[in-house]
Design brief:
The chain is an all-alpha fold and about 400 residues long. The chain is built from 15 helices and two strands. A two-stranded antiparallel sheet has the order 1-2.
Length: about 400
């Protein structure tokens, strides 16, 4: 069975991750309301169709990686010509972040003082930097750019560009501090996990520095979770590890069984356009057309707290998951098609990635997004389509690369 070959290890990890948390969600360990059988079956079907998409892609040629050279880093080094663009983008992002940090008071105030000030101001909707334009720029331009450039450098595996990689990582860390958020750190963690997994699948030497960095990120994420839970490590893990990975199942279950939920007002593919349709919304605002992207509607709707606690009142919001977007788009057919396409495309990109750094980069986008897909719907987030478009644009600028 070719689809069980170790070349597909990253795909196997993606599927097993969802199986793990779905199992936890229906167990007694879960502090949230367990998803009902009909909702649980949708998540199971989504995962199974992801696996089926993988199997189909392998049978149609996705296992071509097994016939490719084991180490493509030399070819990548000889044909990768766009590092000057990446350096320039990184330095621009760093400048914007430093200005934002200075204006927000993050550089002049203590960590605890800044943490509480930001959380209080976020709840009132005030600007962090004093400039709405700057606030938006860091979220929809700087963060997606830093995320994408980190992925590209790792996809190319150019050891001589470690400075470029360090600068991208620094920008992600500064963004996390500016907004006091952990999702960017979670993505950074998964980027390096899949960097290691892809290397193992391609029989590349073990990158001990990457493994050490993954461990350091784990410690940092635990520290962040504990800090947000008053220093309680166990409470932080329960809330920000178990809670974040299981709340989405209960959140979706609540809306699925609510006939008046926005979930049942089908958007016919618009939800999955995410950032692409949000660009039209931005243009619409300038000329007062009143157009609102479906993903923006979803975000506003899901931002309202609902009680998802099993034994006590536990308010939760923003846990839309992949299924919310796919179901809202095309009902159950959206879940089926979404799983099939995701599994097939991820497998194809992983296979083609031995000869194409853009394909490896795009695979990292799909893989990291998949791992957080039971928390939120990453396809609707700014970074997803932004990254895909930026990777495509840079691959065109980098002449000599075959996609």
């Amino acid at each position: 069975m070719r689809f069980l070959h170790k070349d597909h290890l990253p795909i196997h990890a993606m599927a097993l991750w969802w199986v793990l948390w779905l199992t936890v969600a229906v167990s007694k360990v879960n502090v949230f309301v367990a998803p009902s059988w009909d909702v649980a079956s949708q998540f199971v079907a989504f995962t199974l169709f992801f696996v089926l998409g993988h199997v189909i892609a392998v049978q149609l040629g996705g296992s071509a990686m097994a016939r490719s050279p084991a180490n493509d880093s030399a070819k990548s080094r000889s044909t990768f010509k766009i590092h000057y663009y990446l350096y320039a983008a990184n330095w621009i992002c760093l400048a914007i972040l430093l200005i934002s940090l200075q204006l927000s008071g993050a550089l002049s105030e203590g960590f605890i003082e800044y943490f509480f000030k930001l959380r209080r101001e976020e709840s009132t909707g005030d600007s962090v930097t004093g400039s709405r334009l700057l606030d938006v720029a860091t979220k929809v331009l700087v963060w997606p750019t830093a995320y994408t450039l980190t992925i590209i450098v790792l996809a190319v595996r150019i050891e001589q560009r470690r400075g470029m990689l360090a600068l991208s990582i620094l920008n992600i860390l500064l963004f996390s501090y500016l907004w006091q958020v952990n999702y960017s750190l979670i993505y950074l963690f998964w980027i390096f996990v899949f960097y290691v997994l892809v290397g193992a699948a391609r029989d590349l030497p073990v990158d001990r520095k990457a493994l050490a960095f993954v461990g350091a990120l784990m410690v940092l994420l635990v520290a962040v979770a504990a800090n947000r839970f008053g220093g309680d490590i166990f409470g932080g893990l329960q809330r920000y590890v178990f809670g974040y990975h299981t709340a989405g199942f209960s959140f979706y279950d609540h809306h699925f069984h609510n006939p008046s939920s926005l979930l049942h007002q089908h958007s016919l593919g618009r939800s999955s356009l995410g950032f692409l349709e949000q660009l039209l919304e931005i243009i619409s605002r300038r000329i007062d057309l009143g157009f609102v992207a479906a993903s923006s509607e979803n975000a506003t709707f899901n931002n309202e707290d609902i009680d998802i606690g099993a034994f006590e009142v536990i308010p939760g919001n923003a846990f839309g998951t992949f299924l919310f977007g796919f179901y809202r788009d095309f009902h159950v057919a959206g879940i089926v098609a979404g799983g099939l396409l995701y599994g097939g495309l991820a497998t194809h990109l992983l296979a083609k990635g031995r000869q194409s750094w853009p394909c490896t980069s795009a695979f990292y986008v799909l893989a990291t997004s998949w791992m957080v897909g039971m928390m939120v719907n990453p396809i609707e987030q700014a970074h997803f389509w932004f990254s895909i478009l930026l990777i495509g644009m840079l691959s065109v600028l980098n002449r000599g690369i075959r996609l």
